[in-house]
Design goal:
This protein is α/β, with parallel strands linked by helices. About 50% of the residues lie in helices and about 15% in strands.
């Protein structure tokens, strides 16, 4: 099967590298700035135009900014084969908007930065032109970088917050914890970070292995009248307000992006 990636930014490059390592597909790439492709691995076919790539591939992955999506779809609409699958990595633009330009088999896929270590929780949704065989091809392709989660299109926004954005949220939360911890100890900075990260990692593994809930872990550690419960009480009292604002801000930004992009398609 021939897989094409349009856009050679950080995500496009990462996906091509992972697909190449699998040795399962013939790979093609195009990019607005052709010079950026000078150092692409020799096993990947470099296309001079998006049209050339779309005419040669069975699955076309659009790794472009929302602002560039319309132009790319206009580039390829006349050469995409009827049985080809177009995958947008922009979850904010609805299928109904995309089909104003190209009414073909469409999927939206949202990977996570954890794909770098083949641990992505990758979100996928499909339009109504995709059959079961098409869906299996997309899942097989993206299982290369981790696990796949099938959602309704309407759930892709919140799903993205929980898997694609979450590494950034988690990193910022624990960055704050480590910085505040430094005020109360002489432990070296790098040792604090290592202690916290290893504890986060092992706690996640414990919960997944033992099928434990968050509250069960809290109950195990924060015994009544003990030290830990003083901290968990603070978290449960004050942190929900921060999380509520976090989702309000990010989901509102997502709506704005969707609205601004869809205006370009009118």
């Amino acid at each position: 099967m021939n897989i094409g990636v349009i856009g050679y930014g950080s995500m496009g490059k990462m996906l091509l590298d992972k697909f190449r390592e699998s040795n399962k597909y013939n790979l093609y790439v195009s990019n607005r700035n052709i010079e950026k492709l000078n150092n692409v691995d020799k096993s990947i076919n470099v296309c001079k135009t998006n049209m050339e790539l779309a005419s040669k591939t069975n699955i076309i992955i659009l790794c472009v900014r929302p602002i560039d999506l319309k132009d790319v779809l206009n580039d390829i609409k006349d050469v995409v084969k009827d049985d080809s699958i177009i995958i947008s990595l922009n979850g904010s633009v609805a299928f109904d908007t995309l089909k104003k330009i190209i009414n073909k088999k469409l999927a939206k896929v949202i990977p996570s930065v954890t794909a770098e270590i083949n641990k992505s929780q990758t979100l996928i949704c499909y339009n109504d032109k995709m059959n079961e065989s098409d869906k299996e091809k997309v899942v097989e392709l993206f299982n290369i970088i981790g696990n796949t989660i099938i959602l309704d299109e309407k759930e892709m926004g919140m799903g993205s917050e929980l898997v694609s954005c979450m590494p950034g949220f988690i990193a910022s939360i624990f960055d704050c914890i480590c910085k505040e911890a430094k005020k109360h100890t002489n432990i070296r900075d790098e040792e604090i970070v290592k202690m916290v990260l290893n504890t986060v990692n092992s706690t996640s593994e414990l919960m997944l292995t033992k099928n434990m809930s968050f509250s069960e872990v809290v109950d195990r550690v924060a015994t009544k009248g003990g030290i830990t419960i003083e901290g968990t009480n603070v978290v449960y009292e004050k942190f929900p307000l921060i999380v509520d604002e976090l989702f309000d801000k990010t989901l509102e930004k997502r709506k704005q992006t969707k609205t601004n992009t869809e205006k370009q398609f009118d």
